[in-house]
Design a protein that fits this description.
Elements (H helix, E strand, L loop, with lengths): L5 H7 L11 H23 L2 H8 L8 H24 L1 H20 L4 H29 L3 H32 L4 H4 L1 H15 L13 H22 L8 H23 L7 H5 L1 H31 L4 H29 L1 H18 L9 H26 L9 H37 L5 H30 L16
Length: 495
Amino acid sequence: MPADSPTTTAREAGSPQSGPDPRRWLALAVIAVAQLMIVLDVSVVNIALPDAGADLGISAANIQWVVTAYTLTFGGLLLLGGRIADFIGRKRAFLVGLGGFALASALGGIAANQELLFAARALQGAFAALLAPAALSLLAVTFTDPRERARAFGVFGAISGGGAAIGLILGGVLTEYASWRWTLGINVPIAAVTAVLAVTLVTESRATGDRRFDIPGVLLSAAGLASLVYGFNKAAEEGVGWGDPVTLTLLAAAAVLLVGFVVRERSTSHPLLPLRVVLDRNRGGSYLVFLLVGAAMFAIFLFLTFYFQQTLGYTPLESGFAFLPFSGGIILGAGVVSQLLPRVGPRPLMVVGLLLAAVGMLWLTRIGVTSSYVTEVLPAEVVISLGLAAVFVPASSTALVGVSEQDSGVASAVLNTAQQVGGSLGLALLSTFYASSVTGYLAENPGESPAAAFVHGYHVAFVWGAGFLALALLLGAVLVSARKDDLPADAALAV
């Protein structure tokens, strides 16, 4: 079972402690820094994408792979990473994850071409998939008192929520005053100091019992998702398209591999993903909502980053500050929604939140070549962020409704996996629509400036993003039926 279930990891840790670890709050600080590094690594690089693309000659169709390579391997290997952390020891997995993440960051920082940068980002995602569940499990076994554990996970959740905002500002500072390469290189000293402190402050623990890995399941799921995303990406390339044999072959291979993964999980005695976890209507609905929200949310960061810098002429640092209201809205909104959830239940909040987010996404289609940030972009950011806050909290809770103790870890991990994989697929699909719409616009309007074509492409991407959110709204309203009394007492730990 993946190592991100506070309940199961605490019980599997081994012999009970005679008392609370006196260094537990220092250990929390160390673990929180590692989590912050994982969370901000998407947003800190987003701000640097225009500079990195120009420096390495990355095409508009391929630039999304700087993000997708990370999120795809992170999401695809997260369940396996949790099992590895359980079996080799959470502290050992934490240290290995830190070291590997630092090495991959260094490789990305010195990348001389796009292929090495994409490979380094994929390697970062793989080690993040080991580091993230190990960090969450270490918190669970370090804090045994329920009230202290709630406080610890509150800090952990705040770090996760605020990491995006910190990454946007940090990415802007590093890109503007140093180089885009330092958005990756900064991880090396942070990881090194964190690892040294972790050796002293963090206590080892590991699980017992079945130690078999579902390696065929890992290979089938990872290869299937990679083929699917790459197929979408090939369709965006000039001269390829959806009907090209390469595109069709990749999409067909993805279908065969993913169906094979489902067949494998149904037949094996130690599945990577027990199907009973996702076939429940409340849990399955939550995962689908997170998948679609992830697809739409990642598009906001990618296309608005290019709009700010290439259309409005913002510096990387100004772009970072332009995103702050979005991150702030999610953090503040989540606090309010957490208070409302026990009173009104999950479905009303999710429906209202998804409706707001879709409206905000459509609002972004009003932006133009010379739009004002204050009157056009800022209101949309605020509406989208408040809407998403009303989705994240209840969806995280319904992801654990009715789950058995033995499945609580994997149920929580699938939620994170759905968001990461959704982001990967969304970026690939929306980048395809963006690239083709820009090309079509220039062909139909030869007298128009490239800036107008780019803005048209952003509009197309935002419309599709709103479509993802509308589909999530429909699925959430139909599938999520849990009432406020059905929510698990420790649902907040799934966030």
